[in-house]
Target: Methylthioribulose-1-phosphate dehydratase
Amino acid sequence: MSADITASDLREAGAVLAAESARFASFGWMRGTSGNLSVVLSRDPLRLAVTASGHDKGELTPADVVLVDGQGTAVGEGRPSAEAELHARVAALTGAGAVVHVHTVASVAMGHRQPGGIVFRELEMLKGVGQPAHDVEVTLPVIANSQDMKVLGDRLEAARDPRMPAVVVAGHGLYVWGADPRQARHHTEVVEWLLELELTRR
Model:
């Protein structure tokens, strides 16, 4: 365990992530063992609690998390999600306190349809990601997938729009972040709503 992070801290974070996972799984956004969540526990050095690999996301317990460092490497016991490195990269890059990765049909479909980015305008729901509803055009970036988390992180860093706390990974799913798990959840639900709207329009 990291010097300033106790087993109790990690278990408390695990309880939060288990509840968030159950919510997303109930929407069909984390089917089976797919998807992963994280929450930042320390900034200096960077430490995150990340959902453990290979677990049904609708049935997580507070113990089903792993502490990782700024490179996504486990600190102590457990095997984190294979994408823990990208969670750490997003947290370091954006200052986010929590990161959500879900596999939604709308994000994959729209990523295929608009590989250059998905543009939203004149929608009240944009307020849910901190943007005005009118007289603004916001693009949700779409990046090519990779099994190499450093490559994927580089693509995310190059493509991200600071006005949109999310990015679509083509053929894969959606990454969203926020200041804490609650805001990350809200951002995820809003971005998914926007994607579903665009999908039905087309």
Notes: The longest helix spans residues 181-201. The radius of gyration is 16 Å.
